[in-house]
Amino acid sequence: MVMMDDALRDIFRLIRLKSCVYFQRDFCAPWAMEISGTGFAQFHVVTRGSGILELAGRQIGLGPGDVLLFPRGAAHTLADAPQRRAVAGAEVMSSFAGDDPLFSDGPFATRLICGHFEFHNNLAHPLIGQLPDLVHVRALDMMPQQGPLSILPILMRELSDANPGNVSVVERLAEVLLVQTLRAYYADHPHESAFYAALNDARLARAVSLIHRDPAKPLTLDLLAREAGMSRSLFAQEFKARTGIAPIEYLARWRMLNAADIIRTEGLSLSEVAARSGYESDISLSRAFKRALGVTPSEYRRQEI
Known about the structure:
The chain has 305 residues and is an alpha+beta fold. The chain folds into two domains: 17-188, Jelly Rolls (Sandwich); 201-304, Arc Repressor Mutant, subunit A. The protein is 48% helix and 18% strand. The chain is built from 13 helices and ten strands. It has helices spanning 2-14, 89-96, 126-129, 148-160, 166-188, 194-198, 202-213, 221-228, 232-243, 247-265, 270-277, 282-293, 297-304, and strands at 17-27, 32-35, 41-48, 51-55, 58-62, 67-70, 76-79, 87-88, 110-119, 135-137. A hairpin with a 2-residue loop joins strand 4 and strand 5. The chain is globular and about 65 Å long. It starts with a helix and ends with a helix. The mean pLDDT is 87.
């Protein structure tokens, strides 16, 4: 559906993020690494071998090409087999800088890429906020050139080389990996996110598209309902029931995401930002910004420089 693709493109554009790739390394059996809750969106990719994920009492087998994403940084353990004594992830990473890195000798090596994502503001979009604690995309469920599998060879090659600009390239590739992982996950789990599932409804997708297309327009519940081809009351009821958020609340959140993006990326005055993102004045924008993000637009701009 074109409208869904457009909506997803807009969302991925505004949930701007920073990526950090810690390492690509071989872990030789026996090995186990415990990652505590960090608040960052941790990710791991198994590029060779196999392993076990332990999360909240569950054990999940992992194979080559599997991608793991923990949107809220849930604590978890990775190991070559169950019941291993795990070493803290920070200790494992510290050992890599020394002469005796942990888990470097032995048979049955599993190669991992590990890192995290940080979102540029704490105003989460429902598409991200409604994700489960674990997003697991299995290579066995994908064609060789589908989704994350298509970017992995390039990412692995960049991580293995020390070419100029290597770090920037790796960071950008990791961001592409996240988008492809979410696409693949939602394709296989279309009802995991109420917001994503709602985009399959052409009527609601039209309303979302209108919000994304021109957030500065004086949009009302009546205008959005007409765009969806529904009565005002039915539209409000269906939108909230299907997406988990009221339409006017979503409009306000989208305007705030746009304002934050403009402040971060463009050198406009606050009045110009307000006009571009649908606020009546710089004062109304400042008040809404402070309520939503806990800082003023000026403070936010300084943080992002």
